[in-house]
User: Fold this.
Amino acid sequence: MLHATEVIGAQTFDSLGNYVGRIKEIFVEPADQPNRVARMLIARGQYRPLVARYDQIASVAPGRIALTTDEAALELYHPNEAWLAVGKDLLDQQIIDTNGRKVVRVNDIDLSDHRTNGNTELRITQVDVGLPGAVRRLLQGVVPPMAIRRLQSKLPARKILWEFVNLIEPDPLRRVKLRLSSQKLAALHPADVAEIMEELSPDERQGLIGSLDEETAAEVIAELDKRLQTQVVEKLEPEQAAHILEEMDPDAAADLIASLDSETSKGVLDEMEHKEAHDVEQLLKFGPDTAGGMMTTDIVVVSEDATRGEVVDYIRFHELSPDQIDSVVLINKDAAIAGTVPVARLLLSESDSRMSELVFEPLLSVRTGAHDKEVFELFDKYNLRSLTVVSDEKHPIGTITVDDVVSRMHARI
Amino acid sequence: MADTTTNSGGLAVWKARGQNFLRRTRMTRRRLALFLAVVGPGLITSNVDNDAGGITTYTTAGAQFGYTLLWSLIPMTIALYVSEEMCARMGVVTGKGLSDLIREEFGFRSTFFVMIAALAVDLGNTVAEFAGVAASMQIFGVSKFISVPLAAIAVWFLVVKGSYRQVEKIFLVACGFYLTYVVSAILAKPDWLLAAKETVLPSLHFNTEYLLMLTALVGTTIAPWQFFYLQAGFVEKRVGSKQLKHARLDVLVGSISCMAIVFFIIVCCAATLHKNGMTNITDAAQAAAALTPLAGKWASYLFAFGLLNASLFAASILPLSTAHVICEGLGFEAGLDRKVKEAPAFYSLYTGLIVVGGGIILLPKAPLFKILVLSQVANGVWLPVVLIFILLLINRRELMGDHTNSWGFNLVAWGASIIMIILTVILVYAAITEPASTGLVGTFLHSP
Assistant:
C-alpha cells in the first residue's frame, strides 16, 4: 500500500534510468474511472511540466517512480478541469463521509498498486482522516520513511473507503465535468444531510443543494435551521428555488418565504406553479405565531355520511402521501367541520361503518387566529397528533401536525 | 377553541390602525434584530483584549507617564479595526475559520506549527488570566487558593454546560461590566481637558522607558489569538456576505469601545497615581489598593472588580477558542454541541488548558515570572506569523472573490502590520534582555 503524499514529490526516472523530474500532482479522471490515478504531473524546474499517463508508469515505490517510456514520449501538461487533483482538491480539504454521516478533513490518501502487463496502476482505496496520516504529513522528509511506517502502525487508524466519500465541489460546472454524483448523499436521511450542510461553508452548501434533485433538496432544506434556510434559498435562482419550494409542505414553504426579503419572495412566488403559489399565499396571510401560520393546507376532507370503504378508496385513488393523512376531516352538509377520524381508527374499523361513527371525541378544532400557545396546550391536554384548523365559518382549511408543534416548542427552549 | 372575532365598524378601524402600528414596529424591530443577530463576535473579541495583562499594562502606563501616552490610542484603534476587519470579512465571505483556511491553503505542516504556537502562547495567556483573578480577589480579601479553583470550575461549567446563545449573552453582559472603569475614572476626578488634548495631539518622548511602554501597549492590545476567535465567531453565527456591513459595524464598535475603556483606565491612573507621584506601580492589583486613599474605597473596589471581570471573561474564552482552533486545524472533531465521547481531543484540550493554567498559579514555587515572560515572547513571535497569514489569505482572489483588499486598504493593513511587527520584535527583545523594564511582564512579579 502506498500513500498519496509518498507519491507526490517522488523522483521520476524514464525507461533508460534518466532522471526526469519530481511528481507535483496526481490526477484521477472520475468520468473515465472513479478511482484510478490516470495522470501524474512531473515538474522539471524551469522547463514546462510533463504528464505521464497511467500506462506509462512501470513501477511505484515511496519517493521513486519509474516510467515505461523515455522522456520524449511524455505529453506536455495542459490544465484540465475534468481531472481531479489529489493534492489540491483532496488533501487538507473537507469531504463528506456518507457512511459515518459527517464532514471530515483529509490527511492522506491510501493507494493500492496493481501490476498489469508491464505497467503499474495506482488506485485510490481509502481516505485517511486519522492520526497516522497526520503524523506522516508532519514527519515526511524529516524522518526516514520506514520509521514513519513503524510509528503509524501503532496509532489508531481512521479511514474512509473511497466508495463512501462524497466530494464537496462548490462550482456546479466543475461538478459536471468531474461527473460527481450525490447519489449516496441523497440516500441518507434528509436530517443527516442537513446536519452535514451546517458544517460547510456557504458556497459548499450551495454546491451541495444544487447537486441534489429537487425533491431531496426540499426535504433537506426543510430540516435546516431557519437562518440557513433563508441563506440557502436566497442564493438560488428564483426558478430553482420555486421548484424546490413546490416540493415542500405548503406550511414549511410559507414559513420560508415569509423569512425571505420581499424582493426574493416575490420572485420565487412568481415562478411557482399556480396552485402551490396560491396555497402559500393563503398561508402567508396568517401571523407566524397563530394556528393559521402553523398549519399545512394539505388535508383530506370527506363527508360525514361516507363509509370507511369509500374513504379508503378515495385515499388510494388520489395517491395521497402518507405524511398528510394522520387523520381524515369530516364535514357536514354546510361544509362545516363535523369531526376528525384518526387513520389508526380507520384501520381497525369495518369497511361499511360510517365515518360519523368513528369520530374522535371531543370534537376539537382551532380558528386560524388562535395563538400558538393555545395550540400547544390542546396538543398536550388531549395527546393529539394532529389538530384541524377551521375558518371563521367553521370550514376546515388545514391541519397542524405534532411535528410542527415539537419543532416550534424546541425553537423556544 | 379560539374565537376573538367581534366585528363592529368602530372596532375594525382601530384594529386596522393597531395592525399598521404593529407592522411598523415589527419592521424596525426586524432591522434592529438583523444587526443584533450579527453583533457579538467583534464586540466580545475586542473587549476580551482588555484582559488581565492588558489592564496591568494600561495601569502602569497611566501611573508612569500620566496622560502622555493617550495619543497612541487613536492609531491603535485604527490598527485594531483594520486587522480585525480582515478576519471578519474572511469569516463572512468564506464561511470558514482562520485555521481551516490556513490548513486548506498552506497544508498540514504549516498548520501544525501554527497550532503548536497557539497552544503554547494561549497557555501562557491563560496563566496570566488566572493570575488576574488571584490578584483582584486578594483586594477583596479572598485567598488565591479559594478564588482560583472556584474561578476555574465556574468557567468550565459555564462553557461546557451552557448553550452557545446563553454563553454569548453572559459575555455581552461581561462587556458591560467594563463600564466600571468609566466610573472609577470619574471618581478619580481627572483633568478631562488635558486628557482630551493629549489624546488628539501626539507628544512623543524619546526615552527608552517611554518607547518600551508604547510597545507594550500595542503588544497587549493586539493579541494573535483574537483573530482566530473573531473569525470563528462570525462563522459560527452564520453571518452571510449580505450582512458584511453589519459585521463591519460590529468590529468597529468593538474596536472603539475597547479603546475607550483603555482611555478611562489610563486616565484614572494618571489622575490619581501619577499625579501623586506613585509612578512605580507595576501591577493592577497594586493600583487598585493604592486608589483607596486617593479616590475612595469605591473607586478601588470598582477597579478590582473590573480586573476580576476581565480576567474571568478572558479565562472563559481563551481556552475555548484555543481548543477550537487546534482541533479544527488538525481535523479533530470540535465544538460544544458535540458530546465528550464524540470530541475527546477538544474536551481534553479545553479542560487541560484550564487545569494547567489555574494550577500553575497555585504552585508554591511556580516560576510564574519566567512563564509570563516566555508567553509574552511567544505572543510577540507569533503575531507577525498570524498577521502575514491573514494578509496572504485575504488577498487570494479564488478565496475572497471581489472581497480582497483594495490597494489602499492593503497599504494601511501592511503598514500597520509592519509597525506592529517591529514594535513586538522590540518588546520581545526587551523582554528577553531586561524583563523587569517592560512593565507588562514585571507586573506579575508581585502577584500573590
Remarks:
- Confidence is low (pLDDT under 50) at residues 1-8, 437-448 of chain B.
- The longest helix of chain B spans residues 98-139.
